[in-house]
Amino acid sequence: MENIVIIGNGIAGVSAARHIRKLSDKRIIIVSAETDYFFSRTALMYVYMGHMKFEHTQPYENWFWEKNRIELVNAFVNKVDTENKALTLDGSRTLHYDKLILATGSKPNKFGWPGQDLHGVQGLYSKQDLDLLEVNAPNKEVCKRAVIVGGGLIGIELAEMLRTRDIPVTFLVRESSFWNGVLPEGESQMINEHILEHHIDLRLATNLKEIVSDENGKVKSVIIAETGEELPCDMVGLTAGVTPNMDFLKDSGIELGRGIKVNRHLETNIPDVYAIGDCAEQHEAIGNRRPIEAVWYTGRMMGETVAQTICGNRIEYKPGHWFNSAKFLDIEYQTYGWVFSERGMKDYEAHFHWRHSSEKLCITVAYNKETEQFLGINTFGIRMRHEMFDRWLTQEKDVNYVMQHLADANFDPEFYKHHESAILSKYNSDRGTSIKPKKKSFKRIFQLT
Amino acid sequence: MSTYDRSMALTGQPPKEINLNQKIASIVGMLGLAILLLATFNVSFPNKAFWLTLSLVSISGGTIWFSWEQYKGKYPGIKNDGVWFKSLTNLGFWGWIAGLAITTFYVILYFFPEYLGLVNGGDNKGVIGLFDPLSKALSGNPASQWFVYGALYTVAILAFGIKFMWKYRHNRYERIRTMSVMFFQTSFAFLIPEFMARLNGSSVLQGGSLPFLDLKNIWPLNYYNFESYRIKGFLSSGDIGFAMLIFAILSVFVITPFLTYKFGKRWYCSWVCGCGGLAETIGDPFRQLSDKSVKAWKIERWVIHSVVVFVTLMTTAVIYSYLGNDTSKYWLTKTTFLLGVAALLTLVFAWVMIFKRDQLQKDAKYGAIGYFVIIISLIAIHFFSGEGHVFLFKSGALRKNYSFLIGSIFSGVIGTGFYPIFGNRAWCRFGCPMAAMMGFQQRLFSKFRITTNGGQCISCGNCSTYCEMGIDVRAYAQKGENIVRSSCVGCGICSAVCPRGVLKLENGPLQGRIDSNQVLLGNDVDLMELVNSK
């Protein structure tokens, strides 16, 4: 029986294991040094906030693994010997594999800032980081101020977490507006406002110069590059993105770039070694995607794909239409298809933007200004139906059609106020059209004939 | 490795503390309770109406003020910060104390009402006496322990309902639903029955007297509704009484199935029902305590369906016991009735087995077959048993046991008393026969489902954690499968707490209602087809 060893028990590794089990009877071993059981990384914030206990973040009960004959090994992989097909665990034990799946995820970026390794300085990625945060910032007495460096999704989550314990937070963002490398200006602007509403000291276009130590090697303050201002603080969160976790593969012969290099079949240069999830880097980007995608959903999809390949049905990783979601404090964000920020906007791309006059709601629709093809949508505070946008993108609908049928795609809870007519009236006046919204139709949504 | 709150603070969101106004509000509320407590210990108040009003106003005012202080400065959004740090809501010390206190209250209420001051055929004393002025103003009769309970119950749903609406003020589904339970509790459960009591003996009822009836309380939740004394009451009360009897029967066989088909059982459980109303308002802080394990689900299915069998048998026996044998007097005789029940059960059973066999899991099938056999055999035994005995037991004994075990112990003492231990829907989940029957229909024949939004689930677990019915919502959502579960009461909180907009309660077409994609939306089409075609 073939030995499948998976390094990493995150969503990518576990998806691979589950689908291999569905398709075959192979022996499956998952090795992880982080936790005994799979948990949802994206849910760690809710543990600190007291919404859940850590065990609630585990999607499967503990008996699940034995029942499905997925063996779990809690160990750290020091070395991969691809010639002998063996791993070294915890510096001594050896584990043989016939096929190896690398699903080792990421680690927080550190850009060589002075003081980045002091006590009280940390990232937020792993279970260990969460435990460390309870030491560094258990309450506002121990942590009188926290400074967060890096304005992305993890940064704003960390800010939200700390605020639930009334800890004052200063949020240093390199960009001139929050996440505006990804979000178009109107949206980014709305999130700026929302961050300030939550009493977070947001400093835009601000860089970290250095982190200052006290006499015990613990963080005392940070110094801002632009102004030289010194901000006293007890905790520094480094949330300037993540980078593939692959240090242990340096001498393995596996080709590494910024991540572990894989082809479209998720195979590395070494036979029988695959890489999936955050740590994998495509030789060539797929469509508009980045070569490394550190996203929950892509990790899951790569796991599903590699399981097919390993079980004898060699297929390419072909992610469908791009989608993603996040939550900025109280504002939910969903995106389907491609909507680029001003910085990354394509030549052919044009935007329609609508924002509610008083509530924190907005949408941006991207379309091709030559062909009128619908390209994608960003929504803030309005939930949308994934299936509808996936279908419209596949059918290459034009933007007028999508605008007209927006009600079909609405996924807000029942009785919520609908904004389709407000959105359309702005659209009509922006573009000189006279489209009337169509009523929601289950027939269209579920394609009933 | 965490900072769980180990203080004995009852409230607030550790590590945040409650503010001064909240402390004052707590004291106001406590004072209201203290009046009731003093009355219980027979401190006699000179002007009962005044002190009762003061007490109820302080209790609700204190609660509402406290909640206002808790939510006023906050932005609309999910307010679950610190839930698992508070000892009241994380099965900690105060949780157990609260559980013990409420349980004690229920034991006294159900079994020792004399300690609350109930005096049969005389002036009430104690806390029941304190409620006499209100009861007399409404129905003209002195208060009973049930009147006191009903009044406090209504106050709790109203005050904590307002709190709930503030907590979820961004969510219109929750707000409207809560207004609905507040309305049904105040009018249907509390005021209307009291006003109806005034009509007793009047010419409107042709001199008859109606039994106490909460019109929205439907059999089998209202397990005693078809007992002899009640039927007599209905039939003695002219057209109105007759209409009420017809309404009660229609509620069971027409209204409930129709609404459950259209909207799922939520139309009742989280929009109308009093037990649900209490669970959704004062019980809301405890929803996360329900057990989500597969084991608990197994126990749930056995226990709740056993209650259904019990209540069906019991009701059949009770009705059977007062029916006659002479067809010339009335068409409905003992034999016709039993045959009718058997025929109805057989019809339902056959329909399920023929059309819905595939949708049932193995054990549900075994359960159905088992119970069906029991019912049929018990009825068969009747034909071999003598007068006075029905089935194997005396119907009276059966009724008494049900009322004690299910009506009192399960729904009251355990169901509500254990809010801080088992969560706020333990009764609805494990015990309520009405919920089980509607659930059966919801699972097999209803337009209601919770739709999972394509591939957007991140498996975070908020939905499962805050499901009061102990449904592991995430297990479905992360597979891209819609949630179609008999126990779901449609409270909508899973959808509210979802940080990624994955869940939506909706009534849609039956086709494709249970939609299971092994590979979630987002991956390439060939792979999806490949896996799903298996």
UniProtKB/TrEMBL annotation, chain A:
Instruction: Print the keywords alphabetically.
Output: FAD, Flavoprotein
Keyword Oxidoreductase in annotation? no
Molecular function terms, GO-annotated: oxidoreductase activity
Instruction: Write down the InterPro entries for this protein, in alphabetical order.
Output: FAD-bd_OxRdtase, FAD/NAD-bd_sf, FAD/NAD-binding_dom
- Report the PANTHER family cross-referenced here: NITRITE REDUCTASE [NAD(P)H], PYRIDINE NUCLEOTIDE-DISULFIDE OXIDOREDUCTASE DOMAIN-CONTAINING
Q: Where is the FAD/NAD(P)-binding domain?
A: 3-286
| Protein's UniProt name | Pyridine nucleotide-disulfide oxidoreductase
Q: One Pfam family, please name it.
A: Pyr_redox_2
Per the entry, which co-factors are needed?
Answer: FAD
- Of which family is this protein a member? Belongs to the FAD-dependent oxidoreductase family.
TrEMBL record, chain B:
Gene3D superfamilies registered for this protein in UniProt: 3.30.70.20
Q: Has the keyword Phosphoprotein been applied to this entry?
A: no
Q: Which GO MF terms does the UniProt record name?
A: 4 iron, 4 sulfur cluster binding; metal ion binding
This protein's superkingdom?
A: Bacteria
Report keywords, A-Z: 4Fe-4S, Electron transport, Iron, Iron-sulfur, Membrane, Metal-binding, Transmembrane, Transmembrane helix, Transport
All copies of domain 4Fe-4S ferredoxin-type, residue ranges? 448-476, 479-508
Which SUPFAM superfamilies does this chain map to?
Answer: 4Fe-4S ferredoxins (SSF54862)
Sequence intervals crossing the membrane: 24-43, 49-68, 88-112, 146-166, 178-196, 240-261, 302-323, 335-354, 366-384, 404-422
Recorded GO CC terms: plasma membrane
KW Iron-sulfur (keyword) present:
yes
Which PANTHER family did the record assign?
A: FERREDOXIN-TYPE PROTEIN NAPH
Question: What protein name applies here?
Answer: 4Fe-4S binding protein
What species is this protein from? Flagellimonas meridianipacifica
Phylogenetic placement of the source organism: Bacteria, Pseudomonadati, Bacteroidota, Flavobacteriia, Flavobacteriales
